[in-house]
Amino acid sequence: MKNRAVPIFVVPFGALFIAFYLVPIGYAIVQSLYKVERSGTFGPVREVFGGLDQYQRVFQDGPFWASLGRVAAFGVVQVPVMLGVALILALLLDSGLVKGRRFFRLAFFVPYAIPGVIAAIMWGFLYSPNLSPLKPVTGAIDFLSADLVLWSMANVVTWVYVGYNMLIIYSALLAVPTEVYEAARMDGAGQFRIAWSIKIPLVLPAIVLTTVFSIIGTLQLLAEPQVFRSFSSAVTSTYTPNLTVYSTSSIPNFNLAAAFSVVLALTTFVLSFAFLRATQRRSAEQ
């Protein structure tokens, strides 16, 4: 009876996984192996097999690799800050020092309920010197300049996702048996010592999970730069890898866009896998 129940739960997920994940990936790979040719200046367009021609163009595309470097710098700074704030908020909610935990738990999560495009538009208006209600600040600091616009977007992403990551870590904290904390208090440990020596090590898998999600999300950065193009000339059509894919497909050059997508997906996989391997190796050594 148990063996019969397994397909009931596995088949729906498997069908959706194949239809909406594996099939699109396979289609993108196939599309990336073709190229468009035109007979003469105004001749008919035809799609022919090009092999790795599109990938050669990808690896020779300077703006694409510059955009990868840009989001790498974005992730190195933004991800630790966001997860650090999320961890502190989760520890505060779990400490018992904060009254009204239900209210604050909801308040921290509310920004995540706002669509990313709406959040980017809202913050874009706040940053804009001509539109912002904080003109003394935006007049003195140009948050939309070439030097600061990337970090202005990092602030938007942090504001949106810190509550989401906080809930994941907080849920892991709730799963820790209270007897562990009681034993630590009996040994004379204070709140800070319990948080540092017990809580953080026990929720490390949740922190690793949120870090992997954040790495993937960083490389998929699209809504914020797309919206900020309306506010800042410093954001170009190739500012992030996903924006490069979007702009290339709008030309339209679907084959080259597919090649960009495949390379970006492989880069995301390699970085995420490398981070997981590094954390697993460190855990095994300890």
The gist of it:
By secondary structure, the chain is mainly alpha-helical. The chain has 13 helices and 2 strands.
- The CATH class designation is Mainly Alpha
Uncertain segments of ≥5 residues (pLDDT<50)?
none
Helix content: over 70%
H/E element sequence: HEEHHHHHHHHHHHH
CATH superfamily (homologous) name: MetI-like
Total of helices:
13
Strand order of the largest sheet: 1-2
The CATH architecture category equals Orthogonal Bundle
Number of discrete domains: 1
C-alpha-based Rg, rounded: 23 Å
Judged by helices, strands and strand pairing, the structural class is mainly alpha
Mean pLDDT: 89
Counting DSSP E segments of at least 2 residues, the number of strands comes to 2
> Beta fraction of the residues?
under 5%
Major sheet description: 2 strands, antiparallel
Distance between the termini: 42 Å
Shape: globular
User: Might you state the CATH topology name?
Assistant: MetI-like fold
Comma- or semicolon-separated keywords:
13 helices, two-stranded antiparallel ribbon, 286 residues, mainly alpha, single chain, membrane
Description:
- With 286 residues, the protein is mainly alpha-helical.
- The chain has a single domain, classed as MetI-like fold (Orthogonal Bundle).
- The chain has 13 helices and 2 strands; from the N terminus they run H-E-E-H-H-H-H-H-H-H-H-H-H-H-H.
- It has helices spanning 2-32, 53-59, 62-95, 101-113, 116-127, 135-140, 149-174, 178-186, 191-202, 204-219, 223-228, 241-249, 254-285, and strands at 34-38, 45-49.
- Strand 1 (34-38) and strand 2 (45-49) form a beta hairpin.
- The longest helix has 34 residues, at 62-95.
- It is globular.
- It is a multi-pass membrane protein.
- It comes from Winogradskya humida.
- InterPro entries: MetI-like, MetI-like_sf, UgpAE/MalFG_permease.
